[in-house]
Amino acid sequence: MATPGDLREWIALLEREGELVRVQAEVDPYLEVTEVTDRVVKSGGPALLFERPKGSKHPLLINQFGTERRMCLALGVDSLDDAAAKLGSVLEMQPPQGLAEKVRGLKTLKSIADSRPKTVRHAAHHDVVLEGDAVDLDLIPIQHCWPGDPAPFITLPAVITHDPKTGTRNVGMYRMQKLDSRSTAMHWQLHKDGRMDYLATDGRLEVAVALGLDPVSAYSASAPLPKHIDEFMLAGFLKGEPVELVQGKTVGVEVPANAEIVLEGYVEQGDLTLEGPFGDHTGYYSAAEPFPVFHVTAMTMRADAIYPSIVVGKPPAEDAWLGKATERIFLPAIRMSVPEIVDYDLPVAGAFHNCVIVSIRKSFPGQPQKVMHAIWGLGLLSLTKSVVVVDEHVNVHDYEEVFFRVTANVDPQRDVLLSEGPLDHLDHAPTRQFYGGKMGIDATHKGPAEGTREWPEEIVMSDEIRALVDRRWAEYGFHPVTEQDNGRPQRSLRQLLRR
Ligand SMILES: Cc1cc2nc3c(=O)[nH]c(=O)nc-3n(C[C@H](O)[C@H](O)[C@H](O)COP(=O)(O)O)c2cc1C
Ligand SMILES: [Mn+2]
Question: What pLDDT sits at residue 484?
């Protein structure tokens, strides 16, 4: 499946698929858009194109990523695991044997070669070029998201910088608080690559911000790649064709040619402003803190540019599915360094950094603890506050089953590992910001090898009787009951049981 070439193709696809509602009534980007969107997101509703946001002639697109189906449409896959498998096939490449494997190997290598961005000359967003005093952020419908926010925030940008020493490009999604019509704050959190580029300069750092991209490029800005890997490479790989870049008008930074709007400018050492508070994806307001000021030297856009936005807040919000895409896509990469990992899940309610559930193929004592420490040492996963480890046959995405294992299999004195280390910038719980306690819960089976008693056998019906009951089900006179493949009752039934 080809992925949409730009935001307009994406909107057209969403519309064809019945996944978009155009809101023609005038709606205020001051809080009102948030309340409408939050209700729609939490009920699994469609993407929204606010055609008349109050105070701007540019439409506002929101909730483009708000369901699993739309996230799959965005990435051109049937399931998020398919996107992961594509990456996995590259990471796990072996020397080919025989002609068929060689041909397949060459195709895989070509997909890597094709993912390098390429430079083009023309960009539709160069139709309108506003430089210097003409720059005017008031033109676009920047959302004032929550009542306690001090100003409007740009929430879905792709922020592009280059490492001043190596030249490597970095693309990240970092919210930008509007300070006035020509400047914003740049919310580069402590552990992020964009901030590293900023810290590595002793003067100015040029920055370009792209708004309104094709969905794969927009997603890639949120992907936690190692610093030396260009996020637009990942976008090109997932798209199956290179991201096309065009030279900026006033900065030496290339930007996606398909962007609706581009902000060019710079940040400078020592030039900080108080950013926030902001109603954040933790469900709380993150505290006001100093962050760099982004001075906009040029604003370029399509004459009829569409402005993209997202609201975060108490989970689940739209960012849940951006996070889930990352969870799936990065599984093969994580398995490269921690091969005993079968699967993992970052619960949306855990704001992604608060909890990881991981299933492992356990073959030696201490392995769950090894995996906990591995996660605490792995990229941005290192910020994880609690890790729950279960056995390979446990479905990590079924929180009720995980709860069952944690309560049944854990001796708190023996199986809870308390440690400490770096914590997410936004975690308000630790006494000191950035650093604090971590908890690992080993909910795997134990046994004599670990100095415990014999572990009991789990209750499982024999295959023979299961097959017999499957065959005879209609005979018993029940209404057909749909069951999940693992034979556990559906959620609706489980909810019934809980009452
Ligand atoms: C909607 C959304 C908003 C985000 N806002 C911020 C932010 O304001 N600051 C930040 O440091 N990370 C933010 N993130 C997370 C980063 O985009 C993510 O960690 C990414 O990996 C950063 O890129 P980098 O690893 O190249 O620094 C946000 C993610 C999403 C999906
Ligand atoms: Mn990066």
Answer: 47
235 contact partners, CB below 8 Å, separation of at least 6: 115, 216, 217, 219, 220, 243
Q: Is 220 in the pocket of ligand 1 (CB under 6 A)?
A: no
pLDDT for residue 106: 83
- The stretches in the chain having pLDDT less than 70 are 479-499
The pLDDT of residue 1: 76
Residue 471 to residues 92, 397, 460, 461: CA-CA distances in angstroms?
Answer: 41, 29, 19, 15
Longest alpha-carbon distance in the chain: 79
Residue 98: the pLDDT is 87
DSSP secondary structure string, 308-343?
A: E-----SSS-THHHHHHHHHHHTHHHHHHH-TTEEE
Q: Is 189 in the pocket of ligand 1 (CB under 6 A)?
A: yes
Q: Are strands 169-172 and 158-162 parallel, antiparallel or unpaired?
A: antiparallel
Alpha helices by DSSP H, 154-306:
193-199, 215-220, 231-239
For atom 7 of ligand 1, which residue has the closest CA?
174
Question: Residue 59: what are its φ and ψ, rounded to 5°?
Answer: -65, 155
Q: Which helix (H) or strand (E) holds 366?
A: none
- Enter the tokens of residue 184: 């914003």
Strand partners, 278: 286
**pLDDT for res 94:** 80
pLDDT tens readout for residues 148-190: 999 999 999 999 999 999 999 999 999 999 999 999 999 999 9
**CB 210 near ligand 1, within 6 Å:** no
Ligand 1 atom closest to the Cα of residue 425 is 11
Rounded alpha-carbon distances, angstroms, from residue 122 to 104, 157, 300? 35, 21, 13
The 10 Å Cβ neighbour count of residue 89 is 15
Name the residue of 145, 161, 162, 173 to mutate for ligand 1: max ligand atoms within 8 A of Cβ: 173
Non-local CB neighbours of 406 within 8 Å, separated by 6+ positions: 388, 390, 441, 443
Instruction: Give the residue from 71, 107, 73 showing the smallest Cα distance to 89.
Output: 107
Which helix (H) or strand (E) covers residue 15, if one does? Answer: helix 7-16
**Is there an atom of ligand 1 within 6 Å of 310 CB?**
yes
Q: How far is the CA of 56 from the centre of ligand 2 (A)?
A: 32
